[in-house]
Amino acid sequence: MEDDAGIPAPVGATGDRAMPFWSRESRALGVIATAPAYAGFRPRQISRADFESRWLPGLAKDGLLIGVNWAGERATGYELSVDDFLARLHA
Prior knowledge:
Strand order of the largest sheet: 1-2-3
Radius of gyration: 12 Å
């Protein structure tokens, strides 16, 4: 998800920044439709290969968490470190 200013990385419930990602475009569109903070955003598709080879290392380097399939009016959900995310992805 992005807008003209870029990709969001809001401060999450833990006080850390998290960049949100969704497993399906329909999930991202649902947040855009229901969460006022994301009203001006649009989905951005990333291939799994690019996500794993470029995005995950970049997120780890920048100290960002991964927001997984956030939903609802407040766009809330799970926030995982890159290591925790990879462990679950490959489990």
